Amino acid sequence: MKILVLNCGSSSLKYQLLDMRTEEDYTLMVKGQIERIGLPIGKVTYEVSGEDKFKEEHEVKNHTDGVKEVLDMLISKERGVLGSLSEIEAVGHRIVQGGDIFADSCLVTPKVKEQITELGNLAPLHNPAHILGINAVEELMPNIPQAVVFDTSFHHTMPAHVYLYPIPYEYYEKYKMRRYGAHGTSHRFVAYKAAKMAGLDINKSRIITCHLGNGSSITAVKNGESIDTTMGFTPNDGLIMGTRCGSVDPKIITGLLEETGMKPEELDEILNKKSGMLGLGGVSSDCRDNEVAASKGNKRAQIVLDMLFNQVLKYVGGFIAEMGGVDLIAFTGGIGENNPPLRAFVAEKLAFMGVKYDAKVNNVKSKDIIYSTPDSTVKMLCCLTNEELVIAQDTLRLVSEK
Q: What pTM value is reported for the model?
């Protein structure tokens, strides 16, 4: 079964076309991504397995345009691998927020689309983008089965004292205000893959997975289950991100409303789309742009990087204490996989507990590595994520069952 997987992030679109014979027996036909969606210059990559990667830079205004570009490339005469879009038998989508409604993956129906849309207030940068992707597929490939895989499902194992907030309980009962987490598909995949790389039994392990990118979260995975994570009621919680503020004092919210007279939706727009690295540094929402600016003496860009490094360390340290120790720490995502200085920083700060790393091994990007030394008390890894494979596996199961 040929399955197209679409993974729409807040400013990116990853995609893979896989020929899934079984969940474990498959062929990756094409993979690629579109980065910096909505910015003046977008980056498009398209790679047929076994061939050179095609790269191009041009503006991609929104996710709808991004999906259309992916489909056009798949059937193009120059680089396409399909004779027509009819060869695609199913499409799987990553969905950030499933709330209390979706405890598992499912097939797309009008009702499911409606519910995903209703949950958009919990993931304002993502769920609307997911719907755009689903709608684009419906428009271009009518009647093809589509499946949705939710990032929140992996975090359903968190205990009540972790997922509840210390606010009146009635707000949880009435409005379902609780910690949901996100990036669950990636955290699940990376935890199991990293454990296998390190020779650990996932069912007897304490693992911290750091998914760091334009959107970032860190998860404590104990014995294969999520027990805590940094994102909360929405993905705008926890770490500083590309345009999201992360955790802030609640009085800042009410204070800004009082001081500026803004409407709640206006402030929500600022906290989700104009804060984070972009708002604090004033340079860009992209970490790489801030690195370049900081190297040229931009003090605000340097503060952005220092804040990111410090916050990652604080959450990692907290999760180590929460689990009573740690066996493995894995970095993934656009920043986690491509920022050796951040990985080195965490290892150096944990030297007091016997963590040791090889600077030469660590000095690579986008590669699966164990960069801790053999005598280190904790395994330190860069582990490439593959949310798309998990989504394809779930899509195959759901379509086959139907």
A: 0.85
